[in-house]
Each structure stands twice: as structure tokens, then as C-alpha cells.
Write a structure and sequence with these properties.
Layout (H helix, E strand, L loop, with lengths): L15 H33 L6 H30 L6 H34 L11 H18 L7 E8 L6 E8 L7 H47 L5 H37 L6 H29 L1 H11 L7 H13 L20
Helix pairs in contact: 1-2, 1-7, 2-3, 2-7, 3-4, 3-5, 3-6, 5-6, 6-7, 7-8, 8-9
Amino acid sequence: VKDLQYFPNPFYPVTSETYGAYAITCFSLLIFVVGVTANVAIMCVVCHNYYMRSISNALLANLAVWDLAMLLFCLPLVVFHELTKTWLLGQFTCKVVPYIEVASLGVTTFTLCALCIDRFRAATNVQMYYEMIENCTSTAAKLAVIWIGALLLALPELLIRQLVAENGGGSEEPSEEQRCVVRISSTLPDTLYVLGLTYEGARLWWCFGCYFCLPTLFTIGSSLATARRIRRAERGCARGNKKQIRLESQMNCTVVALAIVYGACVVPENVCNMASAYMAAGVPPATMALLHLISQLLLFLRAAVTPVLLLCLCRPFGRSCGLAGRSSAAASDDNEHECTTELELSPFSTIRREMSNYTAAGSHC
């Protein structure tokens, strides 16, 4: 690792590239602040509010934990490399950063699929006023499947990355630029070398099918089936169930919105992979580098926008944060009771309606 004194200063002297460095820094800082704040808010709402501890919210909190980790670890390293053309910590970050980014795609994909399944189950029981209660073991098992599956599927990324140094620029003092390229090391054992070659050949269509087509098609099919169930329940439900059905429909629309944001942020990554595979010879290296940077920043943008969508579109999350932000002296008992009752009847709650006589647990976010 180079000493800090040898890192080039991207902000001085002032050139045409300096404005791009300022733009990248400001945009990344905005993503970082919004993403960290919103993801921490989602985690606080789920962890500190007794009426929000459902399997759906556990999945959303799990996604927030992963997004927060990616923003804290990967975003600063990617921005640092873009500004200085040097990988901090060298070969380690060259392998780990792409691994975490691909694993995050897996976590989001499997979380969206699990949310769709859970929403369909809730829609089939919409007239029961509460979700099917699941114990901690069942919830932990589902979260473990998501994490283990995503981490294992992303492991080949560690085999196909290498850090190479190139002399960049044509100035009097040419700088050494470090690039993290897809290249399999010949020093790997035969089994791992063959695995890396197989993954490299299938990586383009594997990522496109597993991390884009699967969540997109699964969300579309499941959401249509869930909406049909909700409409059927709405036609045959009693008047008192209208509120629960409306909240179920709201959550179904929220899942679709999350899938749309995820798909929009993943498309540039797939375009970059296809351009690298089929048009690398005809595309200038600077254009390929810019496309790769945009795809990475969009992944971080997705991690920041997802919790913001939840806070804006889902009334239970918004009301929970509002309830948490009030002081106990200023909050009215009637308003707190109204908010707690809505959380009990929401598609996020695992608490039976009969338990509404109990005192609400405090939510200190």
C-alpha cells in the first residue's frame, strides 16, 4: 500500500477532470448520508417497535443491514479508487468489493422473492386481521437462507479478480494506475482454476438471469396473483375489514416499487457486462470505465433509495418514526392509541387484534 503522500490530489491543480472529481464526491456524499440515515431508521423502527416485528419487516430490516454495510464499506473505497486511481488495501479490496456488490444483488433478489411469497400468504388470510405468527427460529432460518445463498453464489467473484498496475497519462510524470480486472490467476489450484473459467464464461448470462430476470419476473407474477387475491377478498369481506385490505394492497404496491427501483439500478450493470463481453474492442476504455462507475454508483443509490421508499410509501413505518420522534410529554394518549391500533391492523404486524388492550411497547429510534 502506498503512503498517503504518494496519492495524487484529484482536486489540485484545477483541470477539466477536477470538476468531475467534485461531482463524484458530492453525489457520493449525498448517497452516503441519505442511505446511512434511512437504513438506520428502518432498523430502529423494526427493532424497537413491538408491533412491527413481523416476517415482512424482518426481511426489510435484513435488507437495510446489508445495504448499510455496503454503503459503509464499499462506497468510500470505490470513490477513493475513482479519485486516486489506486485501490486502498490493494488486492484485498480488489477482490472483496466486487464480491460484496454481487452478494448484495443476491440478498436483494432473494429478499424480494421472500417478500412476494409473504405478501401472497398475507393476502390469502386478509380477513383474519393479522398475519400468521412465526417464531424467531423460523424467521432466523429464512434470513440465514438468504444470506448464505447470496454469499455462496458470489464466491466465484473472488477467483476471477486481479489487481494490475498500468502507466496512465502522457504527462511528464506518468502516474501508475491500478485497475481491478477480470483475470484468473494461474497460481490457483486446478479445481479452482476450472471453476473460475466456468464462472467467467457464464457470468454475463448468470448475473442477468439470476439477479435481474428472476426478481423481475417473480415479482410481476406474485404481485398479480396477490392483487387478484386482494380483490377477491375485498368483494366478499365485511365492512370492518376494508382497512386491512387497503393496507395489504399498499404493501403489495410497495414491493412492486422496490422491484422497479432495483431493476432500474441493475440494468446499467448488465449493459456494462454485455459491452465488456461483446463490444470491448469497439468501445473506448474511458467510456467503459465511465459506464462501470455509473453502474456501481447506481447500486449504492439503490441501497439509499430503498429505505426512503419504505418510509414514504408505508404509513406504518412513517407513523412509527413519527411516534418515536415525539416526546412522551407532548404525545397525546388518543393519537398514540390510534397509531398503535393501525400498526396492529397493518400488514406489518404479527400481533393479534385481541392483544390491542395491552400497552404499546416504546419505540425509541
